[in-house]
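FW: tagging you since you asked about this chain on Friday. Here's the raw sequence from the shared folder, copied in full. Didn't touch anything.
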Amino acid sequence: MKGAIEVPLETMAEGIEAFKCLKVAAELGSVHALSDVGVGVLATRMCVKGAAHNVEINLKSMKAAAAASAYRGRMESFLAQALGLEGDIEQALRAREG
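HL: got it, structure written out here
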């Protein structure tokens, strides 16, 4: 069960890294690519949220309550980071789109 939870958590972590790259593109990239950044944000959101759903499903099968709680904490932390970055990117896009 550990692997079934670790893999989507790693996917969430990679999604956060993608959000960080998208943030740079939203703030400093070409204005002609801002819509592409927006599409990247949507795709990355689905990546992170889909992985979170996978973690939730697999947590229900875990017997070790302490381990399940730790995994849930990591998942919730990743979700909070992702949502914060997504908000920052959306704000940067709105500012630059005029």
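FW: The chain is about 90% helix and 0% strand.
HL: agreed, and The CA atoms of residues 8 and 54 lie 7 Å apart.
FW: great, closing this out.
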